[in-house]
C-alpha cells in the first residue's frame, strides 16, 4: 500500500504475520521514519531516520476497543476513536489535540486509506504516519487472529 503525503511516500508490507514493516521515504529514497512490530509482541516500534527509536505504540491487549498509547522519551499520547467511528484523535498528557486521522477508503479503491491532520509540532508528520500504520497493522493482526 502506498500513501501519498505531499512529497513523501509510505510503503506498507503485510507479507506475513511476522514481517510487517513500514518506511516513510522521500521520492529520492531517503528514509524519514520506519515502523515494525517488536517480535513476538503486539507493540509497534517507531524509528527515526538514523534508526533511533522514537517511540512505542501499544493497543489495549484485552479489548477490541480503539484505544492506543504511544510513548516517546518523556511523553505519552493517547489515541482513541469513538465506537462505530472512523475518526481518531491523538492527545497529549494535557488532553490537548495533537493530530487527527480518519479512515477514508475512497482513494483509488485502496483497502485502508487515511487522511491525516497534524495540528501541532509535537510529533513530526512522518512519526504520525508510523502511528497510523502501526494501528492499522495491530488491527490487521487482531483480525487475522480472530479468523
Describe it for me?
The chain is mainly beta. It has one domain: Beta Barrel (Porin), CATH 2.40.160. It contains one helix and eleven strands, in the order βββββββββββα. It has one helix spanning 125-146, and strands at residues 2-5, 8-13, 21-26, 31-37, 44-47, 53-59, 67-72, 75-80, 87-91, 97-103, 114-118. The two termini are 22 Å apart.
Set down the secondary structure blueprint.
Elements: E1 2-5, E2 8-13, E3 21-26, E4 31-37, E5 44-47, E6 53-59, E7 67-72, E8 75-80, E9 87-91, E10 97-103, E11 114-118, H1 125-146
Antiparallel strand pairs: 1-2, 2-3, 3-4, 4-5, 5-6, 6-7, 7-8, 8-9, 9-10, 10-11
Instruction: List the domain count as a whole number.
Output: 1
Query: In the CATH hierarchy, what is the class?
Result: Mainly Beta
Task: Indicate the structural class.
Answer: mainly beta
The largest sheet has its strands arranged as: 1-2-3-4-5-6-7-8-9-10-11
What ranges have pLDDT less than 50 throughout 5 or more consecutive residues? 1-8
Provide the gyration radius in Å: 14 Å
Helix percentage? 10-25%
Mean pLDDT: 81
Using DSSP, what is the number of strands?
Answer: 11
Q: Architecture in CATH?
A: Beta Barrel
Total of helices: 1
- The CATH topology label is Porin
Please write the string of helix (H) and strand (E) elements. Answer: EEEEEEEEEEEH
The rounded distance between the terminal residues' Cα atoms is 22 Å
Morphology call:
globular
